[in-house]
Design a protein that fits this description.
The structure is a homodimer. By secondary structure, chain A is an alpha+beta fold. Helices cover 49% and strands 23% of the residues of chain A. Chain A is built from nine helices and eight strands. In chain A, strand 4 and strand 5 form a beta hairpin. The A-B interface holds A 59, 61, 66, 68-69, 79-81, 84, 90-91, 113, 118, 120-121, 123-124, 127-128, 130-132, 134-139, 141-144, 174 and B 59, 61, 66, 68-69, 79-81, 84, 90-91, 113, 118, 120-121, 123-124, 127-128, 130-132, 134-139, 141-144, 174.
């Protein structure tokens, strides 16, 4: 069984017929590092399950890219604020590694919701999960200092610190790369002592 | 028809029997200004529809309250990060005005999802709506300066500027009250000229 079907089966029951039906709703797409799943200004017309790889979400402010989110293998990718109302995206989603996606269109997703017995439940529970991540991010942006935000990044994504360039992590944490270096040094010293 | 049922009917179909069933799942609760729907450290055991009134969400960091969100009549209130996993809340939700809530328990909500024909769809679409608000807030916290954040607050909630004390709005925008005063003066001058 592939990762996509396993992921869906963690949330709902699928009959063998539904499994086939669902598989056919998705098409495979491969991005090279640097290629885009979604570019700012375009409308997000699909949702992707990440079979393998890593995506970075960013917005551009006064010519500067601000990294706001990462998602990687086993997770779903989409800019819902473009996808749901069908308006141009203010966010870009770019591959940081070679990334294998299983992509479903807006109409395909509506068929999933309607034609799979527990399709609506899947939609609810899958969105609950990303919603939790998002409200935690809001809380952290208000309440946590940069060192705390970096430590939370490390504990949420222990493997990603090796896979993501430091300047993207610095942007996500909300500091300049030099400040992130200092935070990392202090952490290393306090763990060493 | 009451506001609660009208709100649900904007998202899904309800038969007259389902309407009665759903109404019975909710109980009414009235908060005076300053009273809490949820206190930090307690587990959020219910979701509330706000019939009337206004709630403020805040976290406490080094003894300072940081206002992270508002919700008001016609909207839903909950801390999902406590409610879904059943863990203590890191966020408090407090009434700023006399607030009339229609409250549903965790088990009641599961019955709604299961026993109403379009119950799961209601759950999906209702969470999609709050999710959109949340990811917009993340984008704004990364990309927007304080003046932009204040203007977005005004355009999203034109009536709330009069209903919420300025120091809570300043906290939400992420600045000191004096800075918010300056932003407001600049805006007033630029609109006047």
């Amino acid at each position: 069984m592939d990762n996509l079907i396993m992921n869906i089966r963690q949330l709902i029951r699928l009959s063998p017929e539904e499994e086939e039906f669902v598989s056919r709703l998705f098409t495979e797409s491969v991005l090279k590092p640097g290629e885009y799943f979604l570019e700012e200004g375009k409308i997000c017309r699909s949702v992707a399950f990440i079979e393998k790889g890593l995506l970075r979400y960013f917005v551009t402010q006064d010519g500067v890219e601000k990294t706001i989110y990462f998602s990687r293998e086993g997770e779903w990718a989409c800019n819902y604020r473009s996808f749901l109302p069908g308006v141009p995206s203010d966010t870009s989603i770019q591959a940081l590694e070679e990334t294998v996606l299983r992509v479903i269109s807006y109409d395909g997703l509506q068929r999933f919701y309607r034609e799979v017995a527990e399709g609506e439940k899947f939609g609810r529970v899958a969105i609950e999960q990303v919603f939790l991540t998002s409200i935690e991010q809001v809380r952290s942006l208000y309440a946590d200092g940069p060192a705390q935000r970096y430590q939370q990044f490390l504990s949420a994504y222990p493997d990603l610190a090796q896979r993501i360039p430091q300047y993207h992590i610095a942007s996500y944490v909300g500091v300049k790369p030099q400040s992130l270096s200092r935070i990392r040094k202090r952490l290393a010293n306090s763990q060493g002592g």
